[in-house]
Design brief:
Blueprint (H helix, E strand, L loop, with lengths): L12 H20 L5 H8 L11 H12 L16 H47 L1
Helix pairs in contact: 3-4
Length: 132
């Protein structure tokens, strides 16, 4: 979880939704059968996420990559100019909508590449952690 209480790592697209549904179903089943304890789940969910043992610099860099891998996340448009600021923001919003179709395919490919690269990095860091 990040500072806002939201997930710090998300799996993209249909694969991610399928994984979430599968995990939730398995969790509900294990809770119903008494395999898992709700208090233990609450305790573990409040613990900081440690993707790799040791908390080294590579692990922190990887965590940051996991949080920021979505290149098509739309940033908020603002302006510090009091008089013409709202007009500039409106123009930027219109321009963003007009240009969205030109950049959408590239962002989609970049997002897929970023995701695959994160998977490779995680594997390499975990493999290095097992050796050390």
């Amino acid at each position: 979880m990040d500072a806002t209480g939201g997930p710090s790592f998300r799996i993209a697209g249909e694969i991610g939704r399928g994984v979430v549904e599968k995990v939730r179903a398995r969790l509900a089943d294990r809770l119903a059968r008494g395999i898992l304890d709700r208090d233990e789940i609450a305790r573990v969910s409040t613990m900081p996420l440690r993707t790799f043992a040791g908390g080294d610099a590579a692990s922190e860099i990887f965590r940051r990559c996991c949080v920021t891998w979505e290149v098509d996340r739309v940033p908020a448009l603002t302006s510090h100019r009091p008089l013409i600021g709202p007009l500039l923001v409106a123009i930027k919003r219109v321009a963003r909508r007009l240009l969205r179709f030109q950049t959408e395919a590239q962002f989609s490919r970049q997002r897929d590449f970023n995701w695959n690269l994160l998977l490779v990095l995680r594997e390499l860091l975990e493999r290095d952690g097992r050796r050390g």
